Each structure stands twice: as structure tokens, then as C-alpha cells.
Amino acid sequence: MGKIHVLPERVANQIAAGEVVERPASVVKELLENALDAGATRIRIQVEAGGKKLIQITDNGCGMVRDDAMLAFERHATSKIKDTDDLLSISTLGFRGEALPSIASVARLHLETRAEEEAAGTVIEINGGKMIRVDEAGLPLGTAITIRDLFFNTPARKKFLRSESTELSHIASLVTHYALAHPEKHFELHSSTNALLVAPPVAGHRERVYQVFGKETLDQLIPLAAVQALERGGLPQPPPWRRNTDTPVRDVEEQDDSTRAGAPSTVAQGWSAPHAPGLHEFGEMRLHGFVSKPEIQKLNRNSIFIFVNGRLIRDRLVQHALTEAYRNILPPTVYPVVLLFIEMPAGEVDVNVHPSKTEVRFRQQTVMHDFVRDAVREALMKARPVPQFLSEINAQPSASPGLTPGARGSDGSQPTPWRRLYDPAAEFALQAPAIPPASGRLEFEGSIAVEANAAVSLARAPEATVPDHGCAPPIEQAVQAAPTLESLRTLKALGQIRNSFILAVNEDGLWIIDQHVAHERVLFERVLRQRAVQKVESQRLLMPLVIELTPAQQAVFSEIATELAHNGFEAEPFGSRSIAVKVAPAGVDAAQIEHMLNEVLEQLTREDQAINLEAVRTRIAASIACHAAIKVNMPLEQNKMEWLLAELAKTQHPMSCPHGRPVVLRYTMTEIQRAFKRI
Ligand SMILES: Nc1ncnc2c1ncn2[C@@H]1O[C@H](COP(=O)(O)OP(=O)(O)OP(=O)(O)O)[C@@H](O)[C@H]1O
Ligand SMILES: [Mg+2]
User: Fold this and answer.
1) Of 179, 53, 175, 65, whose CA–CA distance to 111 is shortest?
2) 96 CB-near residues (< 8 Å, 6+ apart)
3) 185 closest CA partner among 204, 168, 169
């Protein structure tokens, strides 16, 4: 007897759901795309419990007649393609005929729909893939789908869901970006407590960005638009007899050398006809959207949104092109905000690559890559000349305390490549011999090693042999020990190096203290202490500070509002997408408050784990400390330096800042003696 059998339809659907429905946001994506494919101009989304309990999407699209509504839940049932040829020119967002049966197999689904052709509407209910009700009802034109209890019958899946606020922020981000892609349509997103997005139709993308994110974000973005004629077609390839004759296509070798493709021509910003007929026989690639100015630095790629022919995609090729465009403008560890709409003939892009349809394959990869890179680069260059980028980047305080040309990152790492590019000193550091990263030492000129962040004494060369002291009288041997709180207490401040590092001495040797991170450490512990007894010092602002939040940030904000209040913030909703901050933690400049809040919200938005209050508390404290601390390049009076050293000595962890950077460097007596060849 054979062992193989065909899986029942319900099992097959659940397997498909495994790929298509990862989380509530994927359900929203599929249903939203269906509504857009149905030609809807009004889409309203309601969610509860981050979509885990309920997702409801109502559209005014073409709706379905009764037979179609029933067929829609069959596997591979679609109205969007008919045969394989259609796969080469897909113009709809859906085409697999998989989304509805997959979703219906892992949730409780309620559908209400009516098409123009029928007087009565259809109601269908499906529970975990089992159709339990089909009825007629008087309904408005369009479709409303309600999904309840997602993954109720697949508990293993359910366990992987994140906190409600994380799931909600994924949904909010997704809906926001579809709203950005379709400014001519009406979008709404509501949670049980908030209207996260209400976006009536507007004139264009610019207006939509303003409507959704506000003026400030719009001001930080550079609009761009470019078009490039295609030199050849993607798939299918032009027939060989047409080459070199009636088409301008070059021979095959030349064609493949796509780096020779001309730079994209930038077109007027008012451009707004993505589907206009091509300038060229093979059509053209068009690109428009927004990229952020170099001052905007995001910690992750969450603010990069790429649409290809109206489809939101994740794509490494485009990401790479963006990295290239921002090379030497942004350090490689941070990311810009990007909203790109790329349009090209359907035959140029294969969308049938991944079940969730978020990945695509470009048929002319290099051409596409270079087009995006050059168009973005050109927009950046136009917005601001290069020399200014350079001086600005150099003016920023470096993240790693490079003390000498030979200095490395505080963790013993190489200087980051972007510093390498601009900082001749850092360039020099590249040639310095490698130090095993575990040693955590910083090199001083003349091969003297200084312990960075020296909580433990490092192994030293044997000191048994007493070298010839020459004419210099011997100095009493100091006992080598790790720096302790006690040793910090005895420090005497001598002065500052470049108004940034305090030089201090005691019996242990010479110390260099980074004034910013030292103060950061002091404040960090103070805020945490005060928070523990609910007494964080705060200040009332002269004027309430209105801060615009993205829908995803709003979701996180409502979750951590109480914690923020305990940390000295008094903020309340102001309009639909802003908050008004009236009271802020003491010591943080009004100008820094917005930056600080954005930083905290941004970090939490990108987190996949459920929000952990303990971690939130630490983040907030670290952020307050960072923004309220004495800056580098700030002259300090003698008494202020002494105060700072004394305060630092009182902290529990004086050796590293909340972000893990070292606070103090010590140049021990032994090292000084060894450097002078006294030992
Ligand atoms: N909101 C809607 N309005 C009108 N028709 C719809 C709507 N949602 C789904 N349909 C119809 O149901 C069919 C099945 O939808 P489903 O999402 O399962 O597949 P698809 O969109 O064709 O392909 P994919 O699986 O790639 O999304 C669609 O082809 C469409 O005809
Ligand atoms: Mg679909």
C-alpha cells in the first residue's frame, strides 16, 4: 500500500496561510489589496486588540455577486488572471487566489458583499475554513469583511504574536503607507479607542504626506521624480531578427552592460501620471516620491517604503541602491526616510516570487538599481551641495571617543567606515596593528596602552626584570589595581582637552573623563532613582509643545503614556495625530524634547517583542540623561569639573554610560613609568 495521499483542502489552506498570514498586519494587507483591486475609493479599517481579536475592512468597491462570493473562498479562485501569459503582465495587487481561503482557514470570517448587478447582497460566514452560513441581505454596494479571533484554531501560530501595541503599530504603518500611495482615495483606520488615521482624498502625494505626517516631516523630505526610457524589454526578450534592424536595441553584449545606461532625467515635480504611455518602444521606468535630508537619521529600515507598480515591496536591490545613493552622506549604520513609487511596464517585474507578494524580481536588475541610485543621488545633491554634508558630518560629535590618531572605537573595534572616509586621522587608525577586541584597550601614541572602561585589571607584561633607570631616580612602585569608586573620589581635575574631556589625576595615575558621558551616567542613575520613588523632577514648559506622531508611534505612545508621565512628562492627545507636551523632565531643553520622545517611540516601534516596562523605563531614563547631559565642546569651570567628578564617584556604575561607552580612561602609574622606561 502506498503511503502518499493528497491533503484535505482545509489542511492545504492552513499550510498556505502559514506563508500568507503571518500576523494581523498580513490579513490587513491582503484585504486592503483586495479592496484596492476592487476599485474602492473609500476604505475603512477597524481593529481591536492589535487585530488579534477583530479586523474589519469595509470598502465601496465593485463587490461580488453571490456565486463569486462563494467561489472566492475556494483555493486558487481568482478573477484577476486566467492563464500563464497573464502572469507576465499582472496589473492587480492580487493574482494567486489564495488570500481569502487562507485567512478563512485560520479565523472566524464574516463577509457582506453586494455587486451592482444584484439587488440583494450576500452574507457568508466561515469558521476555521468551514462554511457555516450563506444568506441574502439588503446591503450597500461594496464589501465588508470581518475577521475575528485570528489563529484561534492554530494555537502554535497564535503564540508567536507580539503585544497588541506592536501588532497595531505594524497595521498602522501598513495602512499609512497604502494611504500614501493612493492620495486620491479615502482611508480610515480605527482602533477600539483611537482614530489612528482619517485621510480623505487629497490632490497628490505631497498633500498626502502633509495630511498624514504633518508639516515637519514634509519639510524634512526632498521630493523627487525621474524617468528613464528602457533600452530593451525585460521579458520576453525581443526576437533576434529585430535586433540591429528596426529597433534601437544594441547587440546583446552591449545591452547587458547596463551600467552604461544613461543617467535618469529628472522631470518636473508636478509629474503625476504613472501609467502614461512610454516615450520609448520598450517603455520606461518612472520614479517619484520623497527621500529625507541627510539630517534625518533613522535607526532601522522601518521608514523606507518602496512601491513598485502600486505594490508595497521589500527589496534588497532597491535597498542597496538607496544605500549607494546615501553613501558618504549618511553613516552606514543609520537609514533615511524613503517613500518611493516606482512604475515600470508590467513585463519588467516578476511579482510571482513569494506567497505574500512582498518580494519581486526585476528583469533588468542593474538598470533598475542604477536608475534608483542616480535619481535619489541627484535629488540629494540638488537639495544641498556636497561640501556642506561633509562639514556637517564632521561637526557631529563622534560616537566613539577617538583620542589619538591611533584610537579605535571604545569597544576596540575599527572606526566606522564613514569616519574612515572623512577623517584623515581615522584613516591613519586603519594602519594601526590589530588589537584583539577582547582586550578593550585603547592605544596611545608611543605604544602605551590605557584601559578603557577598566573594570578589571588587564594582564600586563611581566614586571620581574628591573630595567636600567639610567640617570633618573627610581619612583616608588605603585600597586596596580582596577579603578574603584574609591579611586574616583580622590580625583583632582586639572583642566579640559578641547572643552570635551576632563583631565584629572590621583595616586593611581592620569585619568581622562568624557564629560558628556560622565554626566549622562550621573543623570541616568538619578532619573532611575527618582522614578523608583515616583519623584522625577520636571519643568512646566512656557508653551505646550505640539509633536506630530505617525500612526505607528501613536500606538506605542498610548501604551507607554503612563510610564512617560511617571518620568516627568505631561502630554495629552492634541488633534488626531499630535500630542501636546506641557511638562517635561527637568534639564531637557524644549528643543530636545521632541527629539527625545521621537527617539524613545522610534526604538519601541521597531521592537518585535512585547513592550517590557522595565526596559521602557531604562530607555526613557537613558534618553533623558543623554539629552540633559553637559555636551562636548563646552567649557567647564573648575568647580563644575570637580562637581561632576564627585557626582560620578557616587554612581553605581561609573565606568560606562547607559549606552555602553566608556566614561573614563586611566593611564596608570605603571604605564607612565614603563613609557618613560623606568621599569
Ligand atoms: N473586497 C473585495 N471586493 C470585491 N471582490 C473581492 C474582494 N475581495 C476579494 N474579492 C474577489 O475574491 C477573489 C479572491 O480573493 P483572494 O484575495 O483570495 O485572491 P486574489 O486577490 O485574486 O489573489 P491573492 O491570493 O494574490 O490575493 C478575488 O480575485 C476577487 O475577485
Ligand atoms: Mg487578494
Assistant:
1) 65
2) 76, 78, 352, 355, 357
3) 204
Cα dihedral sign for 582, 586, 590, 595? negative
Whether this model's pTM surpasses 0.70: no
pLDDT tens digit sequence for 142-160: 999 999 999 999 888 888 8
C-alpha separations of 204 from 187, 207, 232, 480 in Å: 14, 5, 31, 69
The residue whose CA has the least distance to atom 19 of ligand 1 is 97
Ligand 1 centroid–CA 409 distance in Å is 53
Q: How large is the C-alpha radius of gyration of the chain? A: 31
Rounded to the nearest angstrom, the distance between the alpha carbon of 338 and the centre of ligand 2 is: 26
* Residue whose entry in the numeric block shows the C-alpha cell 524634547: 593
End-to-end CA separation in angstroms for the chain: 86
**What is the structure's pLDDT at 67?**
95
- Rounded to 5°, the CA angle 548-553-557 comes to 95
Q: Answer yes or no: are the C-beta atoms of 121 and 114 closer than 8 Å.
A: yes
State the DSSP code for 150: T
Q: Who contacts 591 (Cβ-Cβ below 8 Å, separation ≥6)?
A: none
pLDDT above 90 (res 127): yes
Give 537's Cβ-side CA count (13 Å radius).
Answer: 9
Query: What is the number of the ligand closest to the CA of 97?
Result: 1
Joined together, the cell numbers standing for residue 634 give 563646552
Compute φ and ψ for 149, nearest 5 degrees. 50, 60
Using the mean position of ligand 2's atoms as its centre, give its distance from the Cα of residue 88 in Å: 18
| The C-alpha cell that represents 45 in the structure block | 479599517
Say which ligand is closest to the CA of 77: 1
Count CA atoms within 13 Å of residue 357 on its CB side: 27
| Residue 139 confidence (pLDDT) above 80 | yes
Q: Which residues contact 433 (CB under 8 A, 6 or more apart)?
A: none
Phi, psi (deg, nearest 5) at residue 497: -100, 125
E strands, 211-321, in order: 221-229, 265-266, 284-292, 304-308, 311-313
Statement: residue 546 has pLDDT above 80:
yes
Q: Whole-angstrom Cα distance, residue 345 to residue 350?
A: 11
Query: How many Cβ atoms are within 10 Å of 336's Cβ, its own excluded?
Result: 26
